[in-house]
Amino acid sequence: MTIDTIEELRAGLRECVFTPAERKALERELAEFIRQRNEALAAEEGA
């Protein structure tokens, strides 16, 4: 997971037309990447 992956998903959600099911799946994937990033940042701060 990288910041680029998160930004690519955000751009895709903004600029593309998806079915409702596709959009929900992408939103879940984006939320999971953001959660992982936040956990990694919190671990770095606690180190």
TrEMBL record:
Top-rank taxon: Bacteria
UniProt name for this protein: Uncharacterized protein
Native source species: Bradyrhizobium yuanmingense
